[in-house]
Known about the structure:
- By secondary structure, the chain is α/β, with parallel strands linked by helices.
- The chain has one domain (6-74, 84-309): Rossmann fold.
- The chain has eight helices and nine strands.
- The protein has helices spanning 11-16, 27-33, 42-74, 95-107, 127-132, 147-158, 227-242, 261-284; strands at residues 6-10, 83-89, 115-119, 164-170, 175-184, 189-193, 219-224, 293-297, 303-309.
- The model has no long low-confidence stretch (mean pLDDT 89).
Amino acid sequence: xxxxxxxxxxxxxWTACRDSIPMTLSEKDITRLQGVxxxxxxxxxxxxxxxxxxxxxYYINAYVQRQITVTNFLGRFGQKVPYIISIAGSVAVxxxxxxxxxxxxxxxxxxxxxxxxVTTDGFLYSNAVLTERGLMQQKGFPLSYDISRLIQFxxxxxxxxxxxxxxxxxxxxxxxxxxxSKIIQQPNILIxxxxxxxxxxxxxxxxxxxxxxxxxVDFAIYVDASDDLLQNWYISRFLKxxxxxxxxxxxFFHHYAKLSDTEATNIARxxxxxxxxxxxxxxxxPTRERAHLIITKTSNHAVASxxxxx
Length: 310
């Protein structure tokens, strides 16, 4: 008989796991946290994300107690070691919304007030470097990231460094902003969101180092959905961008703002199949089973099921 390493929960079973933890987010908060192409409701937060935040809080409490035990044994008191949560999944699946909701919920948990959120987009090589290396059409693939810099960042965070800086990425400029950085000072929790947070050397032969981002992660989440849904969500999001952020004169994709819906749909579908879908199948989806928890979505970004590693 095949061993199944996960507990499976349908939506009702998962919701039933929630204790009497009060909802601390308002309708206004939910609207602010939802993504460009998502209709996030308070019901979704209460039934899915609040139980998840509660579970993670239990994991963190156990982690903190273990740290206290170890530091007592070693006679080294007072060192703060952040708990790192990673969130992976395809483009357009809703990783950013999941990350923002968890940050908002965990920030209001006792003793978890300082929760930072960093996306790995900032660790992409600049467009100039990608162009020089012929990688602009593989942006988001493993080769397009400064993995050494990303690993140094999470290593410094995990080492308890007092102040660590993270590069910032502009989705309007479609590039890293060299003069900007985010300062992080010993958070209780760091949420790291990105395509590549579960990848290791088996995902790309170019990795020469033997340490990976996933080595520093305490709890890994993968947000999943069917190929058809992902494609539809990507195209829908692209169409919305054509009428919003692409209109900005500094947008890298400003030339798309004048497209008809039919033209924009065709371009978005082509980008999906030639870039994002290829990256998903080759580099992102193979990392799914490394996650501690897998969230599977259905239509309208509603969560249909949860798998939790035993």
